[in-house]
Please model this.
Amino acid sequence: MFAGAWYLAVENRVAPHVRIGRGGGVVHRFENCCLMRWQSLDPTPNLERTVSIRDTIARNTGFNAAGRLWEALVALVLTRYIVDAVGVPAFGVWALVSVFTGYVALADFGVGSAYVKYIAEHAARRETREISAVVTTGTAFYLVLGAVVVAVGWPCVNAIVALFEWFGMVGEQASTDLRFLLRGGLLLFAATNLTASFTAIQTGLQRMGVTTVISFAASIAKIVATIAFLETGFGVRGLLYASAISLAVFALASVVAAFHLVPGLRLGPAAFQTSTLRRLAHFGIRARANGWMALGFQPGRTMLNADIIIGYIQAGQVHISDEFGTGAFGPHVPDTTLGGTFDIIDYGGSNDGTFTVLEFSRNLATGDEFDIELTAGANNIIWSYGPTTDTERQHIVRGYGEIELQ
Model:
């Protein structure tokens, strides 16, 4: 009897199958979109590692909560000050710009979500050279993407402003400010994306405390700059200048932190790899899934008598359940409800708003009649994921495949 860890990642995939390799060169084949890697572990539950994971999750949750609370307080106080300083019409123009740049941000195609995954994997294997390749290649990608977005969006700004004028939503002065702010927003979008690979190092190494400190420093810079520009008569344009200063502080601190956290990090043309670019794009474009995720061990292709692990992430907390399928198409109920046992040794996960990863470990043979014993060689699996964290809701995508254990 020995334990294994399964790392699940959901992708939306068009191709009917995907081949995934794991350590030792074994290749798995899955229908549609479930990625899974298996790693052998020591048969004895590692209590020290379990406590460490829980401490890390608790600590990072605390940092994230503190950061979100600070952001909310700053927004609440600063918004009132800005409205009083520039007036409601000008603030409305700024709000339009914020919405516009928010939609422009969708042009990253989700590649940013790939940074964290690959940096975490390479860091776990102490592959500094590969981390350098991810950071360099991703930054080069965003440099080109930013240039394209600015080149395409710049001439479109006039049409957007003309549309607002036609509907009578902005006056002459507001139109001039809106045109200036929209183009400035495009430039800020391009500059912001260049920091994505550096900030991903903090997340990939689970250094949320560093992220919180940097974000706090950037927000202080934004508060000071906003007050300074508005008090000296820059008007609504001063908000853009303040955002640029805040971004500069955030970017500089993130770059410094990246080189501190990964001492051997190297950037330059030699670190650029087309294979890394393909991996980033391949992962990012397809990594669009949230909600519950489930993996079942089953001789067939339905849920009947399947040993099911189902979980989700909500409010930063990972929830996971060891269940058993009592019918071909459901329901599935916890093993403990049927008189069995909860046999998950350890579990964790992450969700960045776009990409969800769950991981767990259990013995291959648990002794629970509601668990399927896994053996060397091919083991059939079924998988699915749902649109929300409600595990009673039907899946939106499902599939089957096999995993080979040695």
